[in-house]
Amino acid sequence: MRLIEKIIQPSSTHSATVIFFHGSGDTGSNLIEWIKFLLGRNFDLPHVKFIFPTAPVQRYTPLNGEYSNVWFDRKEIAIDVLECRKSLSAIYETVNELLNREIYGCSIPANRVVVGGFSMGGTLSLHTGFHLNRNLGGVFSLSSFLNDRSIVYESLENSSAQPLPPLKMFHGQRDTLVPINWAEKTFEELTKRGIKGDLITIRNAFHELKKNELLDLEKWIYEILPPLDNEFQNKL
């Protein structure tokens, strides 16, 4: 399945890619506009392509089965319910196509690709970087969580030892849709399984993006995906 995507092309040589998944009911275009509203600009990393895909329209159980732009279905928004693995499996194929297009089609090494997202999109990014493809450069999640018995945990436990992508998590302390203790539990479970990273809590933030959060994220992406030496030389 080919997704509708909005792409911010690099202004210099393309040597890295970030895939940013939106939250449930949203679109890639709206996520770009939200970021632009908060920052007053787009993300500003000249060598990085930013891809903002839009989730397919499908029935979503938490909306009483109504159609919505969602990455996968789930029984309810709760940490202690089982994942809908059949629904997740369907989006895995689409995400792998997106990754392969960058890695093989655009010749971007896997360790120069970072995936992340907000809310449901952050959950998808955790599945992507720690279950589907552990060779990626990094994973970030904003206001997200994994279910208690997530396939991600199983996958990490059953995998052979290898370097794992670093993780950056952000979460609002006043989030009522996804309580912060869900993020804390997710981070704890991931670190117990070898993931290294940070969980940054944001004071007075609900289930939302914040300017300082995005600035910190942009800085982290730059650290994970710095310009290559020849890109520096080309600017001299």
Automatic annotation (TrEMBL):
Keywords: Hydrolase. It is an enzyme of class 3 (hydrolase). The keyword Hydrolase applies. GO terms for cellular component: cytoplasm. Gene3D superfamilies: alpha/beta hydrolase. Its EC number is 3.1.2.22. Residues 5-223 form the Phospholipase/carboxylesterase/thioesterase domain. One of its GO terms (molecular function) is palmitoyl-(protein) hydrolase activity. It comes from the Eukaryota. Belongs to the AB hydrolase superfamily. AB hydrolase 2 family. This is palmitoyl-protein hydrolase. It comes from Chironomus riparius.
